[in-house]
Amino acid sequence: MPMRIQTKRVYDPPQSDDGYRVLVDRVWPRNLKKESAQIDEWLKSIAPSTELRKWFAHDPAKWPEFKERYYLELRSNRETVNHLLEKANESTVTLLYGAKDREHNNAVCLKGFLEACR
After folding, report:
1. How far, rounded to the nearest angstrom, does the alpha carbon of residue 62 sit from its chain's CA centroid?
2. Domain boundaries along the sequence of the chain
């Protein structure tokens, strides 16, 4: 069975095909109650460092360099990366994020990194 990883805003309604739902942000999303989030795991440790997150500031112009810097951080976080890869080999994994930009966020970047690890 091929590994299936998808991304979704944490504010989007959960779907039955989401599988294992993992919040991959370091900070809890604003105005979201933990009870209604339907999150299986919150992996703060896989999120970009606070310094990198603040530097990026969701600026699409910084996206290529953000990806490079985040990939470096992920390479030094093999235990957590391997944990997510194991989950993705068992079932669908949905990487949840709070950012408004659906194309330039850490979950999209993380998905690409995990898929390259296959």
Report:
1. 18
2. 5-116
